Amino acid sequence: MHYLLAGVGALAIAVLLWRAFNAERVGVPPERRSPAAPDDDPDFLRKLGEQQRKKKREDEQ
């Protein structure tokens, strides 16, 4: 019985810690972090894709 109570208590603590530190908070906008590397930056990847398509079109002509 003690193991069951300890398990439930550990699970409750884990859920509380997860909600406190990792869960998305309702009504609070997410923090905007700058990408760590260029390949993580969606704007960089979009521009790179546009450049590749432009170069491919120029090579075909």
Overall pLDDT confidence:
84
Rg value: 24 Å
Q: Helical percent range?
A: 55-70%
Poorly predicted tracts of residues: none
Structural class: mainly alpha
- Elements, N to C (H/E): HH
- Strand fraction band? under 5%
Distance between the termini: 77 Å
Q: Could you describe the largest sheet, including whether it forms a barrel? A: none
Folded structure, characterized:
The longest helix has 20 residues, at 2-21. The protein is elongated and about 75 Å long. 0% of the residues are buried. It is 64% helix and 0% strand. It has helices at residues 2-21, 42-60. It contains two helices and no strands. The N and C termini lie far apart (77 Å). It has a domain at 35-61. The protein is mainly alpha-helical and 61 residues long.
Tag the structure with descriptive keywords.
single chain; 61 residues; mainly alpha; 2 helices; 64% helix
Write the layout of secondary structure elements.
Elements: H1 2-21, H2 42-60
In short:
With 61 residues, the protein is mostly helical.
